């Protein structure tokens, strides 16, 4: 009986020490990454492609809150593998600072936090926190080389799809690369119209929706992956709508407020399509489970 009480007190003391140590380290990490956080905030506020970054940390905190009961039941088993992970994160921060590579600096924060969790709390707790940690990647703007690699093919696809749709709607159209020539105007599918913004935002939103709407892992991954083609096609049809406005009412009608409003409408439609896909995916397997339950 005395041994059990002593073990219980020792366990509580270990949890308390681990919590205090993790709080101190988290404060040190926050101070270390203060300027990087300020830069992130600036990008969220000034780059419309990543305005959703304001929401991402709150969603990650919610994911942690949702797992809080499960985390309290898991044993704290510090793992030395957290040391090399922590060293890797610090190395990414140093190399990113020397090379002025913001993406590496910002990703290093997630790596450092992962290393600390593994070092202090162990593998099982790190695995439980994997979704909140990985989800933080959505708040980090992609490096320019990745944006340029992804954006241009998206521009070409949007221009091709829009030209095809406009031609079949009886609108004379000529496409040269990412330029769409109409009877009285020429539209350029610029980088801002590539759909990268809606792609990243819908991918983040699709991840949240898949997590809450589906229970099986393969269904969650299917829904997350479906958000990619939905976002790409939605942007292509948005460009088509812009072409229709420009053809009948001039380029002024396709710019400014109407252009922004059209983008929001198309994004809402894309999310509705994602909701419909989630509903259909959720129904897969339900009929067979009902039959097996009835037969039993």
Automatic annotation (TrEMBL):
Pfam short name (any one): Exosortase_EpsH
Membrane spanning stretches: 12-34, 50-68, 80-97, 103-121, 133-158, 195-212, 224-249, 261-281
Keyword Membrane listed: yes
Protein name: Exosortase/archaeosortase family protein
Source organism, top-level taxon: Bacteria
Localization per Swiss-Prot or TrEMBL: Cell membrane
Keywords tagged on the record: Cell membrane, Hydrolase, Membrane, Protease, Transmembrane, Transmembrane helix
Organism of origin: Candidatus Nitronereus thalassa
Organismal lineage: Bacteria, Pseudomonadati, Nitrospirota, Nitrospiria, Nitrospirales
Mode of membrane association: Multi-pass membrane protein
């Amino acid at each position: 009986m005395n041994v059990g009480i002593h073990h219980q007190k020792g366990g509580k003391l270990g949890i308390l020490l681990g919590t205090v140590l993790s709080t101190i380290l988290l404060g040190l990490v926050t101070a270390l990454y203060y300027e990087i956080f300020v830069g992130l905030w600036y990008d969220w506020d000034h780059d419309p492609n990543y305005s959703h970054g304001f929401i991402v940390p709150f969603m990650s905190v919610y994911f942690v809150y949702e797992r809080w009961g499960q985390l309290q039941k898991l044993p704290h088993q510090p793992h030395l593998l957290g040391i090399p992970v922590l060293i890797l994160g610090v190395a990414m921060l140093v190399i990113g600072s020397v090379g002025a590579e913001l993406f590496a600096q910002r990703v290093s924060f997630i790596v450092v936090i992962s290393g600390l969790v593994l070092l202090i709390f162990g593998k099982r707790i790190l695995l439980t926190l994997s979704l909140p940690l990985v989800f933080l990647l959505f708040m980090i703007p992609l490096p320019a080389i990745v944006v340029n690699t992804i954006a241009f093919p998206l521009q070409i696809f949007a221009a091709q799809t829009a030209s095809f749709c406009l031609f079949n709607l009886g609108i004379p159209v000529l496409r040269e690369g990412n330029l769409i020539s109409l009877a009285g105007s020429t539209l350029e599918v610029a980088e801002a119209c590539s759909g990268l913004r809606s792609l990243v935002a819908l991918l983040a939103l699709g991840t949240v929706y898949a997590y809450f709407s589906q229970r099986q892992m393969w269904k969650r991954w299917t829904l997350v992956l479906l958000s990619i083609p939905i976002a790409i096609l939605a942007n292509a049809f948005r460009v088509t709508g812009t072409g229709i406005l420009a053809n009948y009412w001039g380029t002024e009608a396709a710019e400014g407020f109407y252009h922004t409003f059209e983008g929001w409408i198309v994004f809402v439609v894309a999310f509705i399509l994602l909701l419909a896909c989630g509903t259909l995916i959720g129904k897969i397997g339900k009929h067979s489970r009902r039959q097996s339950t009835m037969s039993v």
